[in-house]
């Protein structure tokens, strides 16, 4: 059974992850007048990445404020000591450059996924994005020397089937329409898979070093945000001058990014600040809760929880008429929920299934932690 704190963190991860994706989609859908007087969609992925890393960096500032507050507060006999408070507990003296690699991986994966999404169908993106769970499992076995039981692999397989079913619904709607060359579709699919490998590498790296360094999640996310923010800001100038054809740009300058256009659109439609700031705040909470799950559970559990937010994104999109209902999508999400239940042994905690299949409580504790075995034991996941 998960501790109450981890359950709250897991719920917060799904909620803030949903808000993050929906806020980005909302910004993309807002039309605003640019400096050329024409109305265009707010298509500024690099600038949105800057806001994303700004949100992550804010976790570092929050950590410093909390540490300052708890260190100066007089400790009462019935109060938790400063070093033991859940939000700042852990090793505070680690080398921040340990989080340079995941920041670089995060930036690369985000950029590659955006490029791949522009080349292929949304359905393909949805299906292939689920492959991150498989890559995370494989890399966990290689680099963390972790062994997983067959039922966990079965759960992952069921989740992938569910994701594929959701993606196939787009094809049944006739989404392809022959408007995109097949070689572009194949290239886009390859890029998305590569991005999932990079994301899985980032997740496993974070899990290994969060446990090994006992880094407080707030400070860990803040360090990643600091490096990511520096890198992205340095890239803004060259990307503001690199000309590319459509559909890789949607601005008067014809470049990958156009800061002048972004400023003009925000000035002419201040409503854009709502999804941009929503993205910044939600990504801070989302990554903090994500690293907390990796630290106390595993990177694969984090990815499975991340998959769950797809259901809420789909439901909200239907409610606000951003997409139409298709029965295959409903089937797909039911399959995903079943797969998540298998992976996390939810079904065996229900008396009816427990009595029928006879699983005992020690089954989930047998997974080998490998390199992290020398650390204090985590809660069984």
From TrEMBL:
Keyword Membrane among record annotations: yes
Gene Ontology molecular functions: transmembrane transporter activity
Parts of the chain that traverse the membrane: 5-26, 46-70, 96-115, 127-144, 151-172, 184-205, 217-237, 271-291, 303-322, 328-350
Pfam families: SLC35F
InterPro entries, per database record: EmrE-like (IPR037185), SLC35_F1/F2/F6 (IPR009262), UCP036436 (IPR012404)
Record's keyword terms, sorted: Membrane, Transmembrane, Transmembrane helix, Transport
Gene3D superfamilies the record matches: 1.10.3730.20
Location in the cell: Membrane
Superkingdom of origin: Eukaryota
GO CC field: membrane
UniProt membrane topology term: Multi-pass membrane protein
Keyword Transmembrane: yes
Coarse class of the protein's main subcellular location: membrane
UniProt record similarity statement: Belongs to the SLC35F solute transporter family.
Protein name as it appears in the record: EamA domain-containing protein
Organism: Laodelphax striatellus (Small brown planthopper)
